[in-house]
Amino acid sequence: MNTLAVLHAAQLVTLAGPGRPRVGAELSDVAIVSHGGMLVRDGVIAALGRSDEIARQMPADAQVVDAGGRVVLPGFIDAHAHPVFGGNRVDEFELRARGASYEEIAAAGGGIRSTVAKTRAASEEELRQQALKHARWFLQCGTTTVEGKSGYGLTLADELKMLRVMRDLDAETPLEFVRTFLGAHAIPEEFRDQPERYVDCVINEMLPQVAAEGLAEYCDIFCERGYFDIETARRILTAAKSHQLRLRMHVDQLTNSGGAALAAELGAATADHLEQTEEDGIEALLRAKVQPVLLPGSVYALGKTRYPRAREMIDAGLAVVLATDFNPGSSQTPSMPMVLSLAATQMKMTPAEGVTAATINAAYSLHRGDRIGSLEPGKLANFAIFDCTDYRELAYYFGIPQTHSVYVKGERVFAATS
């Protein structure tokens, strides 16, 4: 039996708790063990406590990790990301800096369609190599699980290509990828004048094949004016449910189109973005116990000012989640610490609420709260050590990498160079 002992943590931030997503005041209880330690056997957490207690329990042949007075956290869980794509959109980034809006660029053929063209042109191996770099970025930021969406192929072959890349990276890298089919991300150029034909293609060709090959666990859709309206979203997601896919939804990002209410109606696991969601949408999500996934990085990167109403959602009793929305056009960061900073400064979430939203609540949104997202006996030993003495420093300092090392199933998968 392989045994690992983590000793001398200034703060062992366990997130141990009620065995369900955290709501209300529970988001502030991160369950810290001061001067903490942890015992890991064969990749699974066996015991936690004060460092001296763990030292007395460990066998003589245990591998010892000296946290050196640093902070130990569960690995971040990024519950909304787009890690596989071709090329980049740095030219559009400059256009926005010159005053063009995201919507104007998209209307001129840029935005999602621009990345679609580059992703279609890339081979599966080229996409894999670029995504490998992204996987390293996530790990370097302390993230150990990523929900990855397709959606830049928009043909059957190219959507399958993207999902296969994530399947292979899940097997080849320490990062766990939770795959989501997002064929309904935009209407591709060739169907611009026949959007109904593309919807039929998603329902009758893509969804059955994705399900038959077991390439996705979730289905997502961009429910937004100019993309997929409420009725179309209902059709596509109802078809996805018939293939036993769980649902996630991009809703109310650019306009308040009623997407939050539809997510509640369909029993989606999450409703993501929600920048434009008002009180009625919040109430609908609460009634249906849909978890909101808030993406402040995309608001920041697009130069917008309206952030999701995080405080109202927390006060209402929603199990809020934070994620990066890493993608080439509207949130070019894989850094969960950067998202924690934005959550604190722009949405007035406390550092404790942010950490909870980026770990255990995110795990439950991915149906994995029983095995990851907190440091508790019986869960996988996915954790990161940060070069600080107080976990709040992760939100307090920004733009500075504080990751000391990252472990997945008790194995070190990243170590910062001194």
Descriptive notes:
This protein folds into two domains: 3-74 and 373-415, Urease, subunit C, domain 1; 76-365, TIM Barrel, CATH 3.20.20.140. The protein has helices at 51-57, 90-97, 102-107, 112-121, 124-140, 156-172, 195-212, 230-242, 259-266, 279-288, 296-301, 310-316, 336-347, 351-357, 360-365, 393-396, and strands at 3-13, 32-41, 44-50, 63-66, 71-74, 76-81, 143-149, 176-184, 218-223, 246-251, 270-273, 291-294, 321-322, 383-386, 403-408, 411-415. Strand 8 (176-184), helix 7 and strand 9 form a beta-alpha-beta unit. The protein contains 16 helices and 16 strands. The mean pLDDT is 97. The protein is an alpha/beta fold and 418 residues long. Strands 1, 2, 3, 4, 5, 14, 15 and 16 form an eight-stranded mixed beta sheet that branches. The protein has an eight-stranded parallel beta sheet with strand order 6-7-8-9-10-11-12-13.
Q: Could you please say which CATH topology of the largest domain applies here?
A: TIM Barrel
Distance N terminus to C terminus? 31 Å
Q: In total, how many domains does the architecture comprise? A: 2
Unreliable parts: none
User: What CATH architecture of the largest domain do you see?
Assistant: Alpha-Beta Barrel
Secondary-structure-based class equals: alpha/beta
